[in-house]
Amino acid sequence: MIYADNAATTKMSDKAIDTMMKVMKEDWGNPSSLYSHGQKAKEILEEARKKVASAIGAEPREIYFTSGGSEADNQAIMSAAAIGRKNGKMHIISSAFEHHAVLHTLEKLEKEGFEITLLDVHENGLVVPSELEAAIKDNTCLVTIMAANNEIGTIQPVREIGEICRKHGVLFHTDAVQAIGHIPINVVLDNIDMLSSSAHKFHGPKGVGFLYVKKTVRLNPLIEGGAQERGKRAGTENVPGIAAAADALLEAIDKMPEYSYSVSKKRDRLIAGLKEIPHSAINGDEKKRLPGNVNFCFEGIEGESLLLLLDDKGIQASSGSACTSGSLDPSHVLLAIGRVHDVAHGSLRLSIDEDVSDDDVEYMIDSVKEVVDYLRGFSPVWRDLTEGKREYIL
Q1: Is the pLDDT assigned to residue 322 strictly greater than 60?
Q2: Of 48, 168, 216, 275, which is least surrounded by CB within 10 A?
Q3: pLDDT digits (tens, 9 = 90+) for 40-60
Q4: CA dihedral angle for residue 127, residue 131, residue 137, residue 142, rounded to 10 degrees
Q5: Looking at the whole model, is its pTM more than 0.90?
Q6: What is the C-alpha to C-alpha distance for residues 391 and 224, in angstroms, rounded to an integer?
Q7: Residues designated catalytic
Q8: Domains, the chain
Q9: How many distinct helices (H) and strands (E) make up the chain?
Q10: What was the pLDDT predicted at 330?
Q11: CA atoms within a 13 Å half-sphere pointing along the CA-CB vector of 349
Q12: Residue 253: which of 41, 24, 15, 47 has the closest Cα?
């Protein structure tokens, strides 16, 4: 079996599993309790906070643990909106292909009277900094742009965006769920005010995430009920998961140079091989993308059929975000970069890591070519294209 859906979730590392098991067995106390067993859990929690902070250039008091990236996105955006409303600034800038945890939160705020501007991400899947700066108004309170796209893997110019926001006195939040642990991020150097992350994207456990909030930014609670996380996130902390997440993140940071070099080479070979398929196209910029992300459209086929047949061949992949896998609608990300509906339906995302071998890469190339050819063999759309009844798009 070849697992090529790491953008959806990663396998927990041995280090993360060992840490989680040890804490569950030995240090399972409530970190809010005053007796020794609870205080031991508190020590583990705060040590994890220090580890996470060190990984992104933050201070420990700027790290808040959450249930994952979606919660962190919601809390960051709602807090910035509250600050904006208080100051009479009710304009928010984002991009057209953000994760739905961001877009749906913005839709909610729009109903509450906020003005939302969604920037074009163009065919290459990149936000243009000059267009962002031109969109900023006197009443702009927040810019929220993801660090790397979860479907097509394009890496945004985060540092430039941060500089522009700092220049205009606008808060900058980035959804870094796909980026953390895979590309370098430093919240100080990148001028980031708030950042969201989720552990299961960097070989940590599911159900654990964190939100970085610059110490000068007022964070509002999203969940009420207790004094945990300095009163900003109620609920007993998941200490085993948090400890495992912190160790997984440090491990990913330590391995990053070797990981990036090795996985990028395999990614580029995959891209080169799949480009040989007629009437196919890579989605997003070919180079400014995450090391392990390959996303293609193939004209004349349905992505769901492609996935099922690849699964029969032992290749586990996806057509886009795991959060919307039950939807029959084409990916909003692909539509945002200009793919038409018919082409967007024929998409494939292969997201690999260091466990995928060179032989695996060649097998995936051969298998995708074979399955695409097979599906086109009985596709009425492909027949119309080859007979000239329709014009090719790709």
Answers
A1: no
A2: 216
A3: 999 999 999 999 999 999 999
A4: 10
A5: yes
A6: 56
A7: 323
A8: 2-6+256-386 (3.90.1150.10), 14-252 (3.40.640.10)
A9: 12, 12
A10: 80
A11: 27
A12: 15
